[in-house]
Amino acid sequence: MIIGGGFGGLAAAKVLRHEPVRVTLLDRHNYHLFQPLLYQVATATLSPGDIASPIRWIFRHAPNVRVLLAEAESIDVAGRQVRLKEAKAAAPIGYDYLIVATGSSHSYFGHNEWARYAPGLKTLEDALEIRRRILLAFERAERESDAARRQELLTFVLIGGGPTGVELAGTLAEIARQTLRDEFRSIDPRQARVVLIEAGDTILPSFPAKLHDAARASLARLGVEVREQTKVTAVDEHGVLIAGEPAKARPLEERIVAGTVLWAAGVTASPLVRSLGVPLDPMGRARVEPDLSIPGHPDVFVVGDAAVFLQPGRGAARDGTPLPGVAQVAIQQAAHAARMIANRVRRTLAPPHSRTVAPPSTPFLFRDKGSMAIVGRRSALADLGWIAFSGTLAWLAWLFLHIFMLIGFRNRLVVLLQWGVAYFTYQRSVRLITNIDRSDRS
User: Fold this and answer.
1) Of 167, 198, 228, 289, which residue is the catalytic one?
2) Quick check: 389 pLDDT over 50?
3) Cα angle at 173 between 171 and 179, to 5 degrees?
């Protein structure tokens, strides 16, 4: 059984669909979401259907893969069973081997009340809510007569200087300064203020130092204010309270009045991981063995954002930093777990006289293929390990890589066309405000 239809779950199922096994792929959504482009749904460049594909369609030619739309509530590792939330009266689903690839959700570092005012970006629902808030801010500012309130509505704060925060900040600035500049009469969208806040020493900390400077320069050209070494201490409906940067002659505490606050700072593993009964790290991720199984249960593997893994020679040898929660880690870990399961099954099915002695497990080895982040129009960063570069070349590499990784010819074609239109016309064709209620009009 595989729990989770994200990058890890799909990678595992694709390996096992060619093996003599029966696979049950369980997910609470009926689609696989291409998360690296989720921010483009949030900023009205792409539609939800452009970056999502039905899981059943993906495995339509894999008769040994059964897809179930359900949410796992808990895992009984001793009884080898998974209990579902929607079917408390039904019998749990049994398994011989289990791969947990449930990903992560937002973490507000003990301040869950902030979620109401600062939505994160993990699901299609999150993206549509962020799109709604961004577009409504400009609409409300257009009819606002009070100058102070108008400026509040046109101020956007993004918390977290990782790839998601940087990509959101850059795209939001482009929307204000290019896409919307001729569409309003009472306001000038180009006067919008976009502030990116990072608690650490630098934005994009996983990238080389020279790319930090390139990212700052690109954001500055777009008019984005970058606040590093700055912690958010409070979030409410009218903005944020920040503290830090004493060496930069700024007050230790400062209030930023903002109509829209977006969260891209912290993540935590799926609550389902807790039911495994294994040690967890502060982010709720399972501490796994070198082969990605959990202690005492070689039949259960945890991969991707649900696991914390220290690879010898990387992280653990330098500063104890685990592998990052990115797609390539989840894909490689899930494929490794699936291959281990396939090897064990094949060995079990082989005639006794032909069985070879195989090691009980194979340690996982991550092969870093590099990292990329887009900052704005014709501006991106690429760290391939052996070379790091930025600018137009990195932007083109980012475009083609993400087109290649999308599932399905239709999605690739539609996204390519949408990007082409956006590039030449500066327009984003999905600027639709949905689910408007009475409070939105007030």
Assistant:
1) 167
2) yes
3) 80
